[in-house]
Amino acid sequence: MTHLDRPPAVEVHHPQPITPHPTAAPLVPVQPGTAAQVQSVVLPDGRVITGYAIEPVKPEPITAKPVISHTAVNIALGGIGFAAVCGGLFLLTAFVAALAAFIHQLIILAAVIFGGFIAVQVFGSSRGRSAGTTVNIRKAVIKRSHFHS
Predict the structure, then answer these.
(1) Which of 53, 113, 125, 145 has a Cα at 20 to 30 A from 95?
(2) Which residues contact 52 (CB under 8 A, 6 or more apart)?
(3) Is the pLDDT of residue 131 over 50?
(4) Under 8 Å CB-to-CB from 56, ≥6 apart: which residues?
(5) 55: which residues sit within 8 A by CB, 6+ positions away?
(6) pTM higher than 0.70, yes or no?
């Protein structure tokens, strides 16, 4: 049998509960500022545990907000209000000017349509009468010429 055929030796470890030692030293709180970076703690059964100290998280210092003058706030709000009123008046003025131009164009359109209607009435009926009159005058001239001849 070779060393490859034999199963390896197995070590079995059984945990042992920690029982408080009757003469254990009381725990004394240590201030974080005086603790070393690496600390060692001796357990009651004699084992030593070494580790790094964890520093508590320091909150950031609260910065005082700068004091804002109420007068400055009122002036700023007044400026914003003034700008809004000026913008509104500008828009109102532009709207009134556009409305006036629109009404002016409607008046011109109505005048052109009404004038065209009147022109058709005047010139349309006079051409019809003049043509009829011319025919009648020609007939009369023809008749008169015929009469005189």
Answers:
(1) 113
(2) 37, 38, 39
(3) no
(4) 32
(5) 32
(6) no
